[in-house]
């Protein structure tokens, strides 16, 4: 797979337009059902996770159909291989659902809104990103209780926003595309919100700006019996690491410093490690190895770094039973970091990677001026506006690939593309619903009881 091109932008755009002859929009509208057992793929992924965290992960996934969708990227990745596609390759997020967008700080401490999860990022099909995004709008809308007709219209509008964002980016010069304006002020300008909606956004922004490392330290640490600052434990989610793990990670962090900018490496030399704990977050990545490192500077101030295991993409994980080795994991941290630097408008200066034992990790600052939109708190108007902005951001990310001109040529200016993607997304939502129920039936009662009452009642009626 290659995203490098040697033709002019206009020639690439013409190629994209020509692709409509071999891959017409009507082809994209048809969901081709795949004969597979979802439990088999999910079992392969579970085998890569920390065993004592799997039950908690399953309970989180059972909460509703969108939570299940977030935790089963490997299923959709497998299904996408059997769908009509243009075969245009781009650098993609790989898991571009609507909960994977959020606020964070640029190196200049400016608040940005962008994609914020890149564990599945790779070079792949741009339609895969868009399809995963559009289906997530339908599923979260379903959880929210919004009327299906309204949500389908939001999906169509989001798809149109994706096309508009892509066209707007490709109308800029190559260098201008490299500097997209994803600062909060620009995002607010794109949001067609009423006064209440903008007030909500500003509340989120205010909350994000207060999420500093010192605030994280106050929330996540305590004093031990000797008066030393340490992370609070909350087993099995947050636990102290053993001495061997601490030594491996300490050495790994020395190697990590070689992957960051020179000025950041010099800054890090002024800190020493105070404590390390295993601390899991999220839904999709919950259960993977994830650590928090408390660093203390020579002036007594603190910095908290997050170390996340860089597994192969869930697609690869779901299709193989081979045991991971140092060789197979070695490049995964670099893959995630490289893709994040390409897809985000600006990135965390502490972003880097290292290898410890037979594991690969990537590093970022933990919760510093980071905040996500609480989807469950959004009104219908806010939800519709939010999904539209996320679609624009996704287009901005895809526009960083040299092949973006081909994508622009293919999607064009007609809403026929949008209608096709809505039809496919509606069909695939039924597949997710089927997988969710199949999985829940195979789960113990302790997991089933975490599902919505309506789903629990349906399961009981079917037994």
Helical coverage, percent range:
40-55%
Principal-axis shape equals: globular
Per DSSP E runs of 2 or more residues, the count of β-strands stands at 12
How far apart the termini lie comes to: 47 Å
Biggest sheet, spatial arrangement of strands:
7-8-9-10-12-11
Detailed description of the structure:
- By secondary structure, the protein is of the alpha+beta class.
- It folds into 2 domains: 261 residues, no CATH class; 153 residues, no CATH class.
- The protein contains 22 helices and 12 strands.
- Strands 7-8-9-10-12-11 form a 6-stranded antiparallel β-sheet, sandwiched between helices. Strands 1-4 form a two-stranded antiparallel sheet. A two-stranded antiparallel ribbon has the order 2-3.
- Strand 2 and strand 3 form a beta hairpin.
- Helix 7 runs antiparallel to helix 8, helix 7 crosses helix 20 and helix 8 crosses helix 20.
- The radius of gyration is 22 Å and the shape is globular.
- About 1% of the residues have low confidence.
- InterPro entries: DUF2252.
- This is DUF2252 domain-containing protein.
- Pfam families: DUF2252 (PF10009).
List keywords for this structure.
463 residues, 12 strands, single chain, 22 helices, DUF2252 domain-containing protein, alpha+beta, DUF2252, globular
Concise synopsis of the structure shown:
With 463 residues, this protein is of the alpha+beta class. The chain contains 22 helices and twelve strands.
Secondary structure layout:
Elements: H1 9-22, H2 25-29, H3 38-46, H4 54-62, H5 65-70, H6 73-80, E1 89-92, E2 101-105, E3 111-115, E4 122-125, H7 126-144, H8 148-170, H9 174-178, H10 184-190, H11 195-209, H12 213-220, E5 221-223, E6 229-231, E7 238-240, H13 243-256, H14 262-268, E8 271-279, E9 290-297, E10 302-309, H15 314-318, H16 326-329, H17 332-343, E11 352-356, E12 359-365, H18 380-398, H19 404-411, H20 416-442, H21 445-448, H22 453-462
Antiparallel strand pairs: 1-4, 2-3, 5-6, 7-8, 8-9, 9-10, 10-12, 11-12
Helix pairs in contact: 1-19, 7-8, 7-18, 7-20, 8-18, 8-19, 8-20
Organism: Levilactobacillus bambusae
Pfam families: DUF2252
Protein name: DUF2252 domain-containing protein
């Amino acid at each position: 797979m290659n995203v490098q091109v040697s033709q002019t932008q206009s020639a690439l755009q013409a190629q994209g337009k020509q692709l409509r002859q071999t891959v017409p929009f009507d082809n994209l509208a048809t969901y081709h059902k795949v004969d597979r057992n979802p439990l088999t793929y999910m079992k392969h992924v579970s085998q890569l996770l920390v065993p004592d965290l799997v039950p908690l992960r399953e309970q989180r996934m059972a909460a509703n159909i969108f939570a299940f969708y977030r935790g089963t990227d490997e299923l959709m990745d497998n299904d996408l291989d059997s769908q009509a596609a243009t075969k245009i390759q781009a650098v993609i997020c790989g898991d571009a659902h609507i909960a994977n967008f959020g606020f964070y700080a640029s190196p200049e401490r400016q608040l940005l809104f962008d994609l914020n999860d890149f564990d599945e990022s790779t070079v792949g099909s741009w339609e895969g990103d868009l399809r995963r995004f559009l289906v997530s709008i339908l599923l979260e809308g379903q959880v929210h209780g919004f009327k299906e007709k309204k949500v389908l219209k939001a999906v169509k509008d989001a798809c149109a926003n994706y096309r508009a964002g892509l066209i707007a980016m490709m109308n800029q010069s190559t260098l201008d595309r490299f500097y997209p304006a994803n600062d909060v002020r620009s995002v607010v300008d794109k949001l067609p919100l009423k006064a209440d909606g903008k007030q909500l956004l500003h509340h989120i922004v205010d909350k994000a700006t207060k999420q500093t490392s010192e605030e994280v330290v106050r929330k996540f640490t305590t004093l031990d019996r000797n008066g030393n600052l340490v992370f609070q434990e909350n087993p099995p989610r947050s636990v102290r690491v053993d001495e061997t793990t601490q030594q491996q990670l300490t050495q790994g962090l020395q190697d990590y410093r070689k992957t960051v900018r020179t000025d950041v490496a010099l800054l890090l030399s002024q800190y020493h490690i105070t404590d390390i704990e295993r601390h899991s977050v999220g839904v999709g990545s919950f259960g993977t190895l994830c650590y928090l490192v408390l660093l203390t500077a020579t002036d007594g101030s603190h910095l908290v770094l997050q170390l996340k295991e860089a597994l192969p993409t869930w697609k690869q994980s779901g299709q193989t039973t081979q045991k991971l080795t140092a060789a197979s994991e070695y490049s995964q941290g670099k893959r995630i970091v490289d893709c994040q630097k390409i897809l985000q408008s600006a990135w965390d200066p502490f972003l880097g990677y290292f290898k410890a034992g037979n594991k690969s990790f990537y590093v970022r600052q933990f919760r510093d001026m980071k905040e996500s939109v609480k989807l469950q708190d959004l009104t219908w108007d806010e939800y519709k506006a939010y999904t539209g902005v996320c679609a624009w951001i996704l287009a901005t990310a895809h526009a960083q690939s040299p092949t973006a001109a081909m994508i622009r040529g293919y999607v064009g200016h007609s809403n026929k593309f949008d209608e096709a993607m809505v039809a496919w997304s509606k069909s695939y939502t039924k597949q997710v619903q089927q997988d969710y129920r199949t999985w829940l039936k195979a789960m113990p009662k302790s997991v089933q009881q975490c599902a919505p009452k309506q789903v629990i009642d349906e399961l009981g009626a079917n037994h």
